[in-house]
Amino acid sequence: MQSLASDQIQHQAILVDYLIKLTQNCELCTLKKITWWQHCCTICQQKTFRVIHCCIMLPVMATWTCNFSKRDWDGHRAVQYRQQKSSAYEAASMGQGCLRYLLTEIAKVDCLKKADWTPLMMACTRRNLGMIQELLSHEAAHMLKNKDGWNSFHIACRKGDPAVIQHLLLANPEVWRTESKTLRTPLHTAAMHGCEEVVSILVQRCGYVPDGRDSCGVTLFMDAVRNGHIFVAKLLLEKHQASPTAADIPGAQSVHHVAVTAQEEALEFLVRDLGVDVNQTATDMQLTSLHYAAKEGHTGTIKALLTLGAGTEQKNRKSLHMACTGQHAEAVRTLLQLGLVDVVDASGTTAQQLAKKPDVLRVFECDLTSTTSGSK
């Protein structure tokens, strides 16, 4: 008798596996003709949860979710709770039509998953206005924050869909009044990602202060230029009174930031169009853009800086030391070819003494050889 019951359960498990395969293949017509699936699912609940999961994740299967009982959904929700997920979260992340049913019958609209992401946040990553409207109609909270201090508006600004931004501002005109744990605003996020239309909306409709800073002192304009978004930088200059010479907490200006990120077009924009001093120093160490470029090993940026007027005189002599500190052989070679001479710094150390990698040491050996040959 016990063997018969075991065989029956095994047979039903095989049938549910067949159901899973049909679900994964989106064979909705075949599924609708099957009358025995609910009985099998009652016996094999763990496998039933996999069927539900497939229905949530696949667009064609979304409408079939209403066939499951509340007990099935409760069990599925318990499994997902242990996995730090939720049905509504997954439906929102995939942009599926079953979300309305889930919100009406089963799921909580502001359920959280690992890292404190809500369904509304996930819908914003998909730039799915219909899904966002559905969640907001069920009173999804705009201002809930994830572990980094980002709310749904931050995420929407990163994705850069103007229609989504307009709708979120319409639903809650104060949603822009938020900062991450590092004091970054949604406008920082939009400027950093080059979302020009979104930046324009935020500058016009929200009360962000010019040159608002994050916890490191980085301004909106710095975020735009160091990521190469010149059109956004121009917009901030014209519409938001941004300063191209504002400094962060260590003292670095935009001209130094673009040298670090090798944004040569932005560098030319700052120096030639805006008149920023290419030899401007930063921090207590009096570092110039040439120092920053050398430390990062950006050979092209080093050449661009020299074309724009960066001098190799006293204030930039440490460039060779910086390139050696970063162990950048090509940058060292470029600086030596441009005429920089290896001299001791304030601590009595030469750049060559900082060289550790064989290819950097070879650059100095070749330079010494060529100098000796030239003197003969």
Kindly summarize this structure in a few lines.
This is Ankyrin repeat domain-containing protein 16. By secondary structure, the chain is mainly α.
Quick one: biggest sheet? none
CATH class category of one domain: Mainly Alpha
Strand share of the residues? under 5%
CATH homology-level superfamily of one domain = Ankyrin repeat-containing domain
On the 0-100 scale, what is the average pLDDT? 78
Would you report the number of β strands? Answer: 0
Structural classification? mainly alpha
CATH-defined topology of one domain = Serine Threonine Protein Phosphatase 5, Tetratricopeptide repeat
From the N-terminal CA to the C-terminal CA, the straight-line distance is 104 Å
C-alpha geometry: elongated
| SSE order | HHHHHHHHHHHHHHHHHHHHHH
The CATH architecture designation of one domain is Alpha Horseshoe
Subunit structure: Interacts with AARS; the interaction is direct.
Keywords: ANK repeat, Cytoplasm, Nucleus, Repeat
Organism: Oncorhynchus mykiss
Subcellular location: Cytoplasm; Nucleus
Could you walk me through the main structural features you see in this protein, from its secondary elements to its overall organization?
The chain has about 375 residues and is an all-alpha fold. The chain has a domain at about 250-375: Ankyrin repeat-containing domain (Serine Threonine Protein Phosphatase 5, Tetratricopeptide repeat, Alpha Horseshoe), CATH 1.25.40. The chain has helices at about 1-25, 30-35, 35-45, 45-55, 70-80, 85-95, 100-105, 120-125, 130-135, 150-160, 160-170, 185-190, 195-205, 220-225, 230-240, 255-260, 265-275, 290-295, 300-305, 320-325, 330-335, 360-375.
